[in-house]
Specification:
The complex is a heterodimer of chains A (630) and B (341). With 630 residues, chain A is an alpha+beta fold. Chain A has helices at residues 20-30, 49-69, 88-133, 158-170, 196-205, 221-252, 254-271, 295-305, 339-342, 356-370, 374-386, 394-412, 433-461, 465-470, 475-492, 500-520, 525-549, 551-572, 576-614, and strands at 8-16, 34-35, 149-157, 174-181, 184-192, 209-210, 278-280, 283-291, 311-315. In chain A, the strands form two sheets. In chain A, strands 1, 2, 7, 8 and 9 form a five-stranded antiparallel beta sheet that branches. In chain A, β4 and β5 (184-192) form a beta hairpin. The longest helix of chain A has 46 residues, at 88-133. The two termini of chain A are 41 Å apart. Chain B has a domain at 1-45 and 191-341. Chain B is built from 19 helices and no strands. Chain B has helices at 5-21, 25-31, 36-46, 59-76, 80-90, 92-106, 111-117, 129-133, 138-145, 154-162, 168-187, 192-220, 225-230, 241-248, 253-259, 262-268, 274-295, 299-325, 330-336. In chain B, α5 (80-90) runs parallel beside α18 (299-325) and α12 (192-220) packs parallel to α18. The longest helix of chain B has 29 residues, at 192-220. Chain B is globular and about 50 Å long. Chain B starts with a helix and ends in a 5-residue tail after the last helix. The A-B interface holds A 37, 39, 41, 53, 56-57, 60-61, 99, 102-103, 106, 109-110, 113, 157, 159, 163-164, 166-171, 198-199, 201-202, 204-207 and B 55-56, 111-112, 131, 134, 136-137, 139-140, 143, 152, 155-156, 159, 170, 174, 181, 185, 223-227, 229-231, 241, 245, 248-249.
């Protein structure tokens, strides 16, 4: 039932630099190597670094060119049949050509921006025409040089207006706002011409946008409107022309663009090795993690592709290396959708058990126990089916949860809250709440024991043997928990007193756990005592609360019946129409609200009471070297 | 507000723990006498969980990374207006990158050289740094910047570039000004209690900045009083609007010091060198932050004060390490770490 992630081998590949690109493309084509930076530094050079740098530049410019031309990113063929290597000179040559092309296109884009800005300015001027007409000043003076008076009209960001006004007051200038909108203020600035130069410098720093008004503004507003319209048309014509120039440029260089389009996928794998491929002279080396099942295929592929002698070795990861090994899960189709929920907690480390199946089964089971109802389960399955395109994992997760609800619905004899239509195959939770609560408690105990066993296994594999044997989540911890639970069961279920030897066993086990904590604690003698005692107390409380936490499994199954009973009680007080509307809305309420709460509670039990005991979630995902697709 | 009182207590404790690890100026001065390895060991003692791995990162980036990791950890515990305020405060560091980037592009620095100079701010980054580095010319960079939260300064930057970069410092000041105005704007949404306590730390920082820039504009760059005043940021504790307008009109460093409010005048009396004034004001604002961290009970103020102190510590440590690497004289390194005052 419980699996570990796919077994991995450390691959070390040593070859001649002449074969490096071919090796990169071969490995990328197979998607089987998770690269790792080499920890030994006997090879000090990075032969692919310069190549990668130029490759990145080409990729960036290629994307910018396509973006400006409005062309979609074309899907390149990943067929790497063309075996010939791409040389650094070739790449540099293409980079130069693209730089020149992008240089021209960038100028056109800048021109486009200027034209758009101009278009915006003309629009703004047209919009402000009326605003200027409403001003009680001689408009022809605006923008005209005068011997004594300097009058400037323009706009400034509203948030800067006060500050500018204060700064202008230092040179004896006045500022008046005559319109405000869209974060900008339209202002008139008036002062002595003597300080004009100083004021211009200030306005430039303030990002003040002067509105230049034509001479005729005062006398013939219609004429101005015509002129502005003409300006707009000219700008629009220039924009069209600019767009055509961009298209023409792209067309003229279509051969280059196509070449880059074909070249990028071929170069991507080798470029990805920039920090991984190390070398000295012609000898280069590369290392990474590969699935154990792929080693023979890798060897064969390299044999077929590489022209020069090479050396490849595969090794099982040592205990020290376990944390570096990436995790590749092998899961059935029905567990994979649950992975998105598990992923909220993390990914298992390579050496850890993959909790996928345990999670999927226990989650489904607990959901059914807490939300057992044939009708509600059927609705959940229907909803999961309807929402399958919007939320992919929901079809499987929802269907299994719904199915579990249906099964428990039959066991409880509940359909849409009615307890008398179906005969319970087992019993209704309300029939004997005490029994249901006891069962939930046993379920929790079983769940926690399993979690503890997994913790022991994981600690053991990680070479934390002392923790695995004597730690709170190790064997001694488990024995203490089992002894304590058995003693309590004997006491409460069978009314037998706890014997002295049982106390003694628990005492010895607890002392072992505390001693283990003592060995790992740091600080002064008193600090260590405090730490150990608090940790011991925390261990006792957390185990007790975790066990009791599973009572919620029973509590929610009771809650489900109680909610339905409340809906029926309200419905019984109403007429026929009101009765059925209440039943309908009540069921919707139960499915949506209680269903969501139960789903979250199940997740909480899994994460806090289960995962936190054995699952670090610190695994790193297996990300194979792949050919980039554009 | 924090989501719960326990989170509040946790964060207070966190800030206190981190604050305890801060190095004093005296301690930093002592470290100038250490060799490089001893300095690194001393820093590693502070944060044993984040040791330096020279194979993967430079010392400088390691220091920044440690700083950002701690900032992120503190930031996560806030929400609402407090979060928005602190998040913007942390973006101060991204501003360094932007300034460096603009200067680099203006002077045609290569992509790789530029990449080496920029600080990796990790998850806190708002700028599409990689794309900006890969731009082929300043105009392309401006077009890209227009799509970011820094769009407001692009027009000015474009103007400066077209005029052959005559006033690059004014672009720096425009960036600083935008940053502080936004921060002051965000501070307005904080609770009254937070604003009142924050003022002691934030106000001192604004006073320091305003005085420094005023002196630079007037007596180093020779700007007019009006322009100098305009380029200043929002007002702080002691240097309010009327005060700054009056100071901007003065013609010498001495007359500015003579006209300062009593507290600052006493601090700067007799100083004739703007660089020394800068150092004194830096220590003045750091003292305010240190007091804010110790004596305040508002979490926001304590966190903000910690950010300022930690940034200064990181800056000083980098100055020491770089000084050591370049073989500078100890006195010279000491100057960079507040050793002149």
């Amino acid at each position: 039932m419980l699996r570990i992630p796919l077994p991995m081998q450390r691959m070390q590949l040593r070859l001649l630099s002449d074969d490096a690109q071919a090796a990169a493309n071969t490995l990328a084509g197979m998607s089987v190597v998770h690269l790792q930076v080499m920890d030994k530094d006997e090879l000090a050079e990075y032969p692919a670094a310069e190549f990668a740098q130029i490759y990145d530049r080409i990729k960036s410019r290629y994307r910018k060119i396509l973006g400006l031309a409005g062309l979609p990113m074309m899907t390149a063929s990943t067929n790497l049949e063309q075996k010939m290597d791409i040389t650094l000179d070739q790449l540099t040559g293409i980079d130069d050509q693209l730089r020149q092309l992008w240089g021209q296109m960038s100028s056109l884009e800048e021109e486009q921006r200027r034209l758009k800005e101009k278009s915006q300015a003309v629009k703004q001027l047209r919009a402000s025409l009326q605003r200027f007409l409403s001003l009680d000043i001689q408009l022809s003076r605006l923008g005209r040089k005068s011997q004594f008076l300097n009058v400037i009209a323009g706009t400034i960001a509203s948030k800067n207006r006060n500050h500018l006004q204060q700064a202008l007051s230092i040179v004896g200038y006045a500022l008046t706002q005559f319109y405000s909108g869209e974060g900008s203020d339209y202002v008139l600035i008036v002062g002595s011409s003597e300080q004009e130069e100083e004021v211009q410098g200030l306005l430039k720093s303030a990002d003040f946008r002067e509105l230049s008004l034509p001479e005729e503004f005062k006398d013939e507003p219609q004429l101005i409107e015509q002129q502005l319209q003409q300006q707009m048309q000219d700008v629009e014509a220039s924009l069209v022309d600019n767009s055509e120039q961009i298209d023409n440029l792209v067309q003229q260089h279509s051969e280059l663009i196509t070449m880059v389009h074909r070249l990028l996928p071929r170069a991507s794998a080798y470029a990805s090795l920039s920090t991984y491929l190390k070398g000295r002279g012609r000898l280069v080396s590369l290392q990474g993690w590969v699935p154990e099942s792929e080693t023979a295929r890798i060897q064969q592929a390299l044999d077929e592709t590489l022209d020069y002698p090479y050396q490849v070795s595969f090794a099982t990861p040592t205990t020290d290396e376990l944390e570096q090994v990436p995790t590749k899960l092998k899961q059935s189709w029905w567990i994979t959708p649950f992975q998105s929920l598990i992923g909220q907690y993390g990914l298992p480390q390579y050496c850890e058990f993959d909790p996928g199946m345990l999670f999927a089964l226990s989650y489904t089971l607990m959901f059914g126990m807490m939300f057992g109802d044939v009708g509600h389960g059927a609705v959940i399955i229907t909803l999961a089916f309807l929402l399958r395109n919007k939320l992919k994992p929901i079809l499987v997760v929802g269907s299994l949860a719904g199915l579990s609800s249906i099964i428990f619905g039959f066991l409880y004899g509940s359909i849409f809250g009615y307890e008398h239509i179906l005969h319970p195959l087992w019993m209704s939770p309300m029939h004997d709440p005490g029994h249901i609560l006891t069962l939930a408690l046993y379920w929790g105990i079983g769940f926690l024991i399993l979690a503890n066993l997994l913790s022991i296994r994981n600690l053991w594999v990680r070479n934390q043997r002392q923790q695995a044997l004597y730690g709170a989540h190790g064997l001694v911890g488990l024995l203490f928990y089992v002894t304590a639970v058995l003693s309590l069961i004997l006491m409460f279920e069978f009314e037998r007193e706890i014997a002295a030897w049982q106390y003694l066993i628990m005492l010895v086990l607890m002392a072992t756990i505390l001693f283990q904590g003592w060995q790992h604690a740091s600080g002064t003698f008193v600090e260590r005592i405090v730490i150990v005692l608090i940790e011991g107390l925390e261990y006792l409380i957390s185990n007790m609360s975790a066990t009791l936490s599973f009572l919620r499994v029973a509590a929610f199954s009771l809650n489900h019946v109680a909610l339905a009973a409340a809906v029926f009680a309200i419905a019984a007080m109403l007429d026929t129409f009101g009765h059925w509307v209440t039943i309908l809305l009540g069921n919707v309420f139960i499915i949506v609200l209680e269903g969501a709460i139960v789903a979250i509670q199940c997740l909480r039990l899994e994460f806090y009471e289960g995962f936190s005991r054995f699952f670090s979630g610190k695994g790193q995902r297996f990300r194979p070297l792949q050919t980039e697709v554009y | 507000m924090q989501s719960s009182s326990s989170a509040h207590v946790y964060l207070h404790t966190r800030v206190s723990l981190l604050a305890d690890r801060l190095l004093s100026i005296e301690h930093l001065q002592d470290m100038i006498g250490y060799d490089l390895q001893q300095i690194i060991e001393r820093i590693e003692q502070q944060f044993p969980d984040q040791p330096l791995d020279p194979a993967t990162t430079s010392i400088e980036n390691w220091l920044y990374l440690r700083m950002y990791t701690d900032f992120q950890m503190l930031l996560r515990a806030f929400n609402g207006h407090e979060y928005r305020f602190l998040k913007h405060a942390i973006h101060w560091f991204e501003l360094f990158n932007l300034k460096m980037l603009i200067r680099g592009k203006f002077s045609g620095v290569s992509e790789s050289a530029l990449s080496e100079q920029l600080i990796d701010v990790g998850e806190l980054a708002e700028l599409p740094l990689q794309k900006l580095i890969q731009t082929d010319d300043p105009f392309e960079m401006f077009r890209l910047l227009e799509q970011t939260s820094y769009a407001g300064i692009v027009r000015q930057a474009r103007g400066i570039f077209e005029e052959q970069g005559q006033e690059l410092f004014s672009l720096d000041s425009a960036l600083d000004r935008n940053f502080f105005l936004e921060l002051v704007g965000r501070a307005h949404f904080l609770s009254l209690a937070d604003r009142q306590q924050l003022n002691s730390v934030f106000g001192a920082l604004l006073d320091r900045n305003n005085l420094l820039w005023l002196l630079r504009y007037r007596f180093i760059y020779g700007l007019s009083p009006a322009k100098s005043y305009y380029l200043l940021t929002a007002t702080g504790n002691l240097l309010v609007t009327a005060e700054l307008m009056k100071l901007a009109k003065l013609e010498s460093l001495q007359s500015v010091i003579d006209e300062l409010p009593a507290k600052l005048r006493a601090l700067l009396a007799g100083q004739q060198d703007i660089y020394l004034v800068e150092q004194i004001m830096e220590l003045y604002s750091l003292d305010a932050a240190r007091r804010g961290l110790k004596k305040n009970n508002r979490l926001l103020t304590r966190t903000f004060a910690y950010l300022l102190l930690r940034e200064a510590e990181t800056r000083y440590l980098i100055a020491i390490i770089k000084g050591k690497q370049l073989g500078f004289d100890q006195d010279l390194i000491s100057e960079a770490v507040g050793g002149l005052v």
